[in-house]
Amino acid sequence: MLSGGLDSATCLYWARQRHHYEVSAITFNYFGRLEKEKQATTMLARSAGIKLVEIDIPFLKEASDFDAKFNGPDSRWTSYVPARNMIFYSIAAHYAEYLGVRQIIGGHNSHDVSFFKDASKGYIEKLNALLREGCLLCDGKAYEIALPLADLDRTGVVRLARELGVPIEMTWSCHGEGDRHCGQCYACKQRREAFAALGIKDPAFAV
Fold first, then answer.
1. Where on the phi/psi map is residue 131: left (φ > 0), alpha (ψ -120 to 50), or beta?
2. Structural domain boundaries enclosing 102
3. CB 26 within 8 A of CB 55
């Protein structure tokens, strides 16, 4: 599940290093998705030499796009989407069953869970149980959702990305439009803090 951000890019390269895997990526073009995010996804897939499946779901809107009244005091409300992960994983599961996929890899980390409850390990375990129950083409070996970053904070993700050789300069985390990361949205701030904690420079903010 490749969004173009640092977390999903790290998962992509984590999967590539598990040599028994043949890796493909799936990405979702929802309403108002940033062009820079789309471009990052395409570049990452091309860099990794893998197939990218693009799914258009224009009805899916972030809270800020659906109605401004849903924006809360926490800036993360602007990017909240009801049932987002249930929808994304259900679509991924549809393809997984036909293609004989063994794992659907999601990039949720421990920071995500503090706000986005559908990113928790408990939530994903419930989804896995439903997928196992409903899969008729799996020959008793149903695919499952795997979360390799679930126990890592943002700093841990950056550290792992560097170890795996992720082309971090290609990733896009910002929630604003523009040619460069804004440095002000919650995603940019988390990213800057993580790189600063490791004492290294984030190429997203390189001059």
1. alpha
2. 6-205
3. yes
